[in-house]
Amino acid sequence: QVQLVESGGGLVQDGGSLRLSCTASGLTFNQYTMAWFRQAPGKEREFVASHVHKDGSTYDASSVKGRFTISRDIAKNTVYLQMNNLNLEDAAVYYCTAISTYDDYWGQGTQVTVSS
Fold it and tell me: pLDDT tens digit string along 2-12?
C-alpha cells in the first residue's frame, strides 16, 4: 500500500519560513518524480514545484521561484519543500504527489496559514 505522509505545515507570519516534508512508503522512491501542489480556498489546485527522479532537475512555479526550494533525500524516502519569505498568497493546503509513467499517488495534505 502506497502512502505519502506530509508534515511541517502550520501558522507562520508574513515573511516567515516553513519546511514541509513528505515521506513515501510502498513504492520505489527513486523511480518517481516528486512534486508539490497547493490549493487555496475557492481556487483550483496548482503546481508548486517538482523534482525529477531521472536527472534530479527541479521546476518551480513562477509565483514561488526564488523563495521555495524542493529537494529529495533518497535514503529517507522523503521530499522537502523549503518555503522562505512566505506571503498571504501562499496560504493553502499543500499536497505531495509521486508521479510515474504509469501511476500517481497523493498525500492527504498539510495546511499552511500565513498571518499578516
Answer: 999 999 999 99
